[in-house]
Amino acid sequence: MRLNIPALCFGALLLLLWEIGARATGNPFFPTLAAIGASLFANAGVIAAQIVETLRRAAIGLGFACLVMIPLGAAIGRIKLLGDIFEPIVNMLRPLPPPAVAPIALLFAGAGDGGKIAMIVFTCSFPVLIGAIDGVRANHPMLTNVARSLRLSKLETIALIDLPSALPVIMTGIRLAVAAALLVSVVAEMLLTTNGIGVYLLRAQENFRIADGLAGVVAVAVVGYLVNHLFLRFDRKVLAWHYATTGAGAHQ
Question: Which domains, ranges and CATH numbers included, belong to the chain?
Answer without folding.
Answer: 36-251 (1.10.3720.10)
